[in-house]
Amino acid sequence: MRIFHILLWAFIATGTISAVHAEPAVATIGQTSETTTLSGLITDIDGEPLAGAVVRIDGTSFACSANVEGKYQLKARLKKGDLIKVTFLGMNPVEVIYDGQSKLDFTLAPDSNSLDEVVVTAEPNINNIDIRARSGVVQTVDMKRLNEKPMTDISLALQGTVPGLIVTNTGELGSKPQIRIRGNQSLRVGDAANEPLFILDGKVISSDAFRTLNPQDIKEIKVLKDAAACALYGIKASNGVIEITSKRGSYFGTVDVTYSLGMGATLKGRRGVKVMRSDEKLELERLMMNEATPGYRYSEDYYRRRYPNSPDLDAMIASGKAVLDSLRGINTDWFNELIRVAMYQNHNLSVRGGSEKSSYFVSANIATQ
């Protein structure tokens, strides 16, 4: 037994039986652990290189793209029977079964469903954009109804034409009407901080310039009230936008001459308050005992309090009574004196024409009130 142990130890020491502890070889049918390089050229049917075309082994993460010359080089663990896919935007994909080759070229044909050409044409006027009207935030003013209103100021004519558009006439002499779309947005003093943005044929104009426009020269007016205004014009449109499209010339070779006349009268309207007569005003002044008013200054109460011991007291009372009697006979109706029926007339003349090469539109307006 001792001799057997010695011999076994000798075998182990010399490495004769070391193969007993070696790992078994792993083998997979049809697969190799070596990396294979596949290269080639990718072009279209005209022979032009397709830069950026993608070559991918189906079912794996191995892929590469072609360079500017259309050449590609794919390094992966390839085996026969793998499916190779080549794709490019606008082209029909190509699929090839790998058969062990090292070089493989591809030719891709155009996709028949792709668009040949897309032409984007910008509108000359921002009013022609239709996408805003579909969002429900754009209101169009009825120009026929606007022109029928007997007013020389287009700002006043806008009153009641569009829901949410508020036009307030302060009534002060020489003051312009206040136009609001979203109400007052700022606490700053002045009308400019709260009035909407006025756009004429794509250009910004002031509210004073808007008031001078002739309604007969306007083709269309749109009112933007919500987010569409800010999307187009930025923070300047936070109070809303009033877009005006003017009339243009004709390209049909004809000349159109249009003349319109508008006449009317502005009535006094109703009285705001009922005023006192002169005798009532004098009596009120006497009761208030204000020496700066004639009702008390010439009254008997004033003379008896101011000159109780004067020998001319009776004469002064009689003189004051005469003055008051003369004042009581004056009853001027200042409502009729200051506010009268105002006549106005508005003349509009326009000439429109042109040809295939050019067009023109000329107009003149005279308004008196």
UniProtKB/TrEMBL annotation:
Entry's localization field: Cell outer membrane
PROSITE patterns: TONB_DEPENDENT_REC_3
Entry-linked InterPro entries: CarboxyPept-like_regulatory, Plug_dom, Plug_dom_sf, TonB-dep_OMP_SusC/RagA_CS, TonB-dep_rcpt-like
Any GO molecular function: siderophore uptake transmembrane transporter activity
CC per GO annotation: cell outer membrane
Stored SUPFAM superfamilies: Carboxypeptidase regulatory domain-like (SSF49464), Porins (SSF56935)
Stretch forming the signal peptide: 1-22
PANTHER family: TONB-DEPENDENT OUTER MEMBRANE RECEPTOR, TONB-DEPENDENT RECEPTOR YNCD-RELATED
Protein name as annotated: TonB-dependent receptor plug domain-containing protein
Species assigned in the record: Paramuribaculum intestinale
